[in-house]
Amino acid sequence: MAKKMKTAAEVMLDVLYENGVRHVFGIPGGNSIPIYDALTHHPLNLILTRHEQGATHMADGYARSSGKIGVVCVTSGPGATNTLTGILTAMMDSVPMLVITGQSITPNIGLDAFQEADILGMSFPAVKHSYMISDPQDISRIIKEALHIATSGRPGPVLVDIPKDISASLIDPEIENDQDLPGFKDIPVADPVDIKKAAELMNRALRPVILAGHGVILSGAGEQLMQMAEKMNIPVTTTLLGKGGFPDTHDLSLSMPGMHGTAYANKALTGSDLIIAIGARWDDRITGVPENFCPHARKIHFDIDSVEIRKIIPVDCSVIGDAKASIEALLPHLEPGDTARWIKQINRWKRDFPLKYRKEGKLRAQHIIEELATMAGTEAIACTDVGQHQMWAAHFVKSEKGENWITSGGAGTMGFGLPSAIGAQLARPESMVYTIVGDGSFQMTLCELATAVINKLPIKILIVNNRYLGMVRQWQHMFYENRLTGVDLEGNPDFIKLASAYGMKGFRVKRSSDVRKTLKAALKWNEGPCIIEAVVEQHDNVFPMVPAGAALDEMIIEAPRRKRSGEGEDQ
Amino acid sequence: MDQSMKHTISLLVSNKPGVLTRVALVFARRGFNIDSLVVSQAQSPEFSRMNIEATGNERTLNLMLTQLNRLVDVIHAVDHASDDVIQRELALFKVNCTPDKRTSVLQIADTFRGQTVDIGDDTITLQVTGKSTKVDAFHTMMSPFGIMELVRTGKVLMSRGKESTA
Ligand SMILES: Cc1ncc(C[n+]2csc(CCOP(=O)(O)OP(=O)(O)O)c2C)c(N)n1
Ligand SMILES: [Mg+2]
């Protein structure tokens, strides 16, 4: 009896499905047609996007909101190169992603064939790992390895390049080659000696601060972190990506530190005698110049990735392992010290230097962001784009769960906000999803409105329209004597007309007094996505701000009171 | 202050296309120049051995070692700066050598246990093997005669005794 043969593409889709994948994001092309052909009769859902970059950010938002891998499938050449920005974004933020690219037929590779690009070579510096398949019988092994590599340890993107003749080959699905990963290291388990040392430092500390990063969320260590912080009475500051790993609403929360961090988080770090970093990689947006970063505090670093240890900041103790397991091992060794005076001091800072803005007068970005976040509640998923609005979202969205806060941190990729929200809504259809985008960022991927509309995703898209590339304008204003260049977004479309062109609902709000009313209507709107365009004060700057290169305690806490001519910078 | 030092790194890697590029990128990204590089199949054909010499400060090098070890295709990467390992290099020297100088050139070569591999009217080609410092010394001795061409293989290494090379 003849064996039932399948194409390698079909076998690949089966492997994905068996491993829990339900959605694939992408756009087809000549060299990925065999894969798309296999999708026609497969239970995997294809989400057709309008641009491959959008597909990667959707997969990214899908992964961050669900903890499951996001999968992208595109064609060769420009289709493949269009994914690079999204791959970098996922790499920088440790997001599990599988990017499958079509490739020219094997005999044509290296001959400048139509739509041939050396995507494997281009991927090297931006992926956790990448493959090109040269034997169709290898496909299930490689896809399984790719899923494993992308999701285990510190997650990241994996690219698999599949020549068209390979994906179209008929193979015996029963034959499966063994996995072959001799160089893939197991997840490290924390050394008990390091755990003891960390505990000793923590038990003795008088002014400790926990710096919690994305690793806390990725390892699901929120509860353990909470136990530790509460038991020891230690305040917790969460990085931009660690937001939600410890609730912003908790008494011990200091919110975000760093360049645009809260004054109290930065004062706490500066005044501390021990910084306990957990799954945080001492990003330069937090530390500034490493030599000047809290030189008097001792430091402990918990991380799953040994590359991060001492990469930037010298530490007194390092614990290499999964955050959750490490904290669990640490807890029994912890004995509460006396941090009461320290907490008192921190509470004074919180009282004296709160985040603030003016609610009366012109509509402020902060106002509508805070109102939207409050009305949507902490069960809703908040996505953001990149710029001033992102920092204000970090300030005013109160997060209680890591998987409900989705932002591009390491890469700071403009255009992330809309597609990541689409991915999140597909992963979690029951949750409310809103995305806070800038007028500049939004226009980088706005073609994905079509994707949101055809899939009837009830995403609330708040466009914070200051008609500027605001964050760059802020730098030019503050550090280049207000010489504005290349930041005026003259030529913005009418966003409400844009919404209607896509067959969507659009709301516009210009006055503070209309904020609640408009948001109420928008949050009730459930027939597909809607745009809320907030026309906001153009010249507001984000504060606090630590100028680049300065130490945390040199931060500018509030906008200077004096007015510049023609600017209403009087928050 | 960090001292710039010469390091010899040995790697055991998967024997697959592209691995060398991935390894080289780790060096290039930090602006580390590779002084020498030897790649060959390991005992088992699924693996290759790489020996890389590079100069740079200790801290960057340690970071690069962890980054190399993180690569999926790298089984392990070790720095041998301070270890006692067997290190060898082979070099070919093509030297200006008219018949009247032949005796002195050959005498020096003999001291270094060099071998004559080719001889012409006014050139001589010598092969020297040994520690890199020995090859350096031979280089110095040959310079006055006029070196026309020189090629060195780069360093290979192996641990002593029963211990297997990391
Ligand atoms: C793809 C990309 N290009 C350029 C930048 C540099 N950049 C950072 S913030 C910013 C301005 C963003 O403008 P907008 O989306 O309107 O947000 P705003 O700062 O005005 O709130 C720019 C250009 C970037 N982060 N990403
Ligand atoms: Mg803007």
Biggest protein-protein contact in the assembly: A-B, 19 and 22 residues
What is the overall silhouette of chain B?
elongated
CATH class of the largest domain in chain A: Alpha Beta
Instruction: Kindly report how far apart the N and C termini of chain B lie.
Output: 29 Å
For CATH, the homologous superfamily of the largest domain in chain A is named as: Thiamin diphosphate (ThDP)-binding fold, Pyr/PP domains
Helix content of chain B: 25-40%
Short description:
The complex is a heterodimer of chains A (571) and B (166). Chain A is of the alpha/beta class and 571 residues long. Chain A folds into three domains: 6-171, Thiamin diphosphate (ThDP)-binding fold, Pyr/PP domains (Rossmann fold), CATH 3.40.50.970; 192-352, 3-Layer(aba) Sandwich (Rossmann fold), CATH 3.40.50; 365-543, Rossmann fold, CATH 3.40.50.970.
How would you characterize the overall build of this protein?
With 571 residues, chain A is α/β, with parallel strands linked by helices. Chain A has three domains: 6-171, 3-Layer(aba) Sandwich (Rossmann fold); 192-352, Rossmann fold (3-Layer(aba) Sandwich); 365-543, Thiamin diphosphate (ThDP)-binding fold, Pyr/PP domains (Rossmann fold), CATH 3.40.50. Chain A contains 23 helices and 20 strands. The N and C termini of chain A lie far apart (79 Å). Mean pLDDT of chain A is 96; it is low at 564-571. Chain B has 166 residues and is of the alpha+beta class. Chain B is built from four helices and nine strands, in the order E-H-E-E-H-E-E-H-E-E-H-E-E. In chain B, the strands form two sheets. In chain B, strands 5, 6, 7, 8 and 9 form a five-stranded antiparallel sheet that branches. In chain B, strand 2 and strand 3 form a beta hairpin. The longest helix of chain B is centred in the middle third of the chain and has 13 residues, at 58-70. The radius of gyration of chain B is 19 Å and the shape is elongated. The model of chain B has no long low-confidence stretch (mean pLDDT 92). The interface between A and B is medium-sized, with 19 and 22 residues. The complex binds thiamine diphosphate and magnesium ion (MG). Magnesium ion (MG) binds at residues 387, 438-440, 466, 468-470 of chain A.
